[in-house]
Amino acid sequence: QGVLVPGLGTFAVVPEQINSTEEVYVVRRPVFQLDMDMSCLRELVFPTVMIPGDIMIKPLDYWWLSQTNSLPPDVVRGCVEETILLYSFQLRDRQRPAFAFENIGILSCQDNVLCMQFHCSCIAGLESQDTWVALLLT
Q1: Residue limits of the CCDC81 HU domain (predicted)?
Q2: What is the reported pLDDT for 128?
Q3: Hey, which of 2, 40, 95, 119 would disulfide with 88, CB 3.0 to 4.6 Å?
Q4: Residue 96: what pLDDT?
């Protein structure tokens, strides 16, 4: 399953098969597929991540988010949209702030490479059986 954050990108959990000499591991790992206005990313490099077509992508659930912080859904939507707009303006102006997603990871830019770094706790929460393999892959 995946979640589309309009103007920013898609977060998803994808299965990945790893063959070792002794065993075959199938782990679930988080990925982020960037989907920003290309004018913001003129001088930046970012990894190409393809989310498989069989992964169901849902739009960000503003109603659910509003339940976690007691704000109306339209206020939550406005906050998300304005935050993404501010982030894209900062990238366009050659500022390189980190964009932190609580309990998920950090979208950061180092040496003109924009990439998503997932927290170990996020990866471990998705994959309880082969946690170390998933951590090494991500």
Answers
A1: 57-129
A2: 59
A3: 40
A4: 87
